Amino acid sequence: MANSLRLAFLVLFQSSLALSLAHRYPTKCSFDKLVALEPTKRVESEGGFTEYWDSKNDQFQCVGVSALRYSIKPKGLLLPHYINAPRLQYVLQGTGILETVVPGCPETFREQTRHGDQHQKIHATREGDVIVVPTGSAQWIYNSGETDMVIFSVIDSANEDNQLDLKVRKFFLGGKPQEEKGEEGNMFSGLELKTVAESLDIDMGIAGKVQGVDDPRGSMIIVEDELETLSPAVEESGNGNGLDETVCTLRLVHQLAESTDADKYNPRAGFLTALNTPNLPVLQYVQLGVDRGVLYKNAVMAPHYNLNCHAVIYGTEGRGWIEVVGENGRKVYEGEVREGQILIVPQQFVVAKKAAEGSDEGFGWIAVKTSDNPMISPLAGKLSLIRAMPLPVLMNSFRLTAEEAISLKKRGELTLFSPDPAQTQI
Length: 426
Description:
Elements: H1 2-24, E1 41-45, E2 48-52, H2 58-63, E3 66-72, E4 76-83, E5 87-93, E6 95-101, E7 109-110, E8 118-119, E9 122-126, E10 129-133, E11 138-143, E12 149-155, E13 170-172, H3 193-200, H4 204-211, E14 220-222, E15 234-235, E16 253-255, E17 264-266, E18 270-275, H5 283-286, E19 289-295, E20 300-306, E21 311-325, E22 331-338, E23 342-345, E24 350-355, E25 363-369, E26 376-378, H6 391-398, H7 402-407, E27 416-417
Antiparallel strand pairs: 1-2, 2-3, 3-12, 4-11, 4-13, 4-14, 5-10, 5-12, 6-9, 6-11, 7-8, 7-15, 10-16, 17-18, 18-19, 19-25, 20-24, 20-26, 20-27, 21-22, 21-23, 21-24, 21-25
Helix pairs in contact: 3-4
């Protein structure tokens, strides 16, 4: 009997492990040719629209992610919803407020209004912010500015927190979103009216409004009563529940656009900022990281590869010329990546970026990575593998003279290279 139980447990464990590995590591993947991708579907709502990249595309399937972009009108509200996987968002344009409701955390903020409403923390957000949304946490976003608020979002469907398949599933808590053809309704609309009324202790009329069966506005609505009165309000001490000293108090929003906070900066080439667990601890819960990079006119970023993750590169400004090389030296991509396009770079593939010729504004991007501590290894520059190798190894590997091998190590810049090779990084 004991042996049978152990055997059953072993089979169950191996099946679970196989499912987890299959999420991140599909059995068949082809990266022979990469393509810069643009959204393929647009869903309109009263308060804006959502654009989706094709999640069934082989590149998305192989790295286990999906992507979308929100455009929220002024006074527009993206209705509260949660998703079956963690996500990283980047604010491309606009200002607003948002709340990420983490299940189990206390409502420790009280509004200074006649209602004295209590809730979890509300965050102010602006262009250049990274927003972290853990799996199953409900989020709403309100555009408090005067222009459209645009947000790019990557969902890590292959994350171990997702026990379903790779399809992104949105679960709305209000309204009547129409995200998929023939599929509409919020989570309350699927329950019996009486169940909703009894669960929330409300009358049947209010329960009908909660279900939103006759609501035509979609997943984004225009707010009639402005939400500007909401703010990061006064926090009350209250009784904690054990979680409030951990995930409940972690920062979920981080400004990433400023060059003053860059990890690598070259006044003649650009800057690069990495966001990982050491500088944003909540990332360890979602197992994602992100880089923000800017190359000035004609500048170059050293060819490099990602040691421990895939990268989803999104052009935020200008135009870049990118080359990607896979195993056996096979070039799988060479071409422009423009603002609004995605290029997926698989783990260990070498990628080289430069501001495209004729692009006066240079090239800016963010790269969402499938590790909370992503690492890169440059092939050129002061921190490169080449500089770390002895001269005799380089001489014999590349059939070089000693002087020629020394020339491979002469570049003094770290990662971002100025158009003039004689310049050195400061």
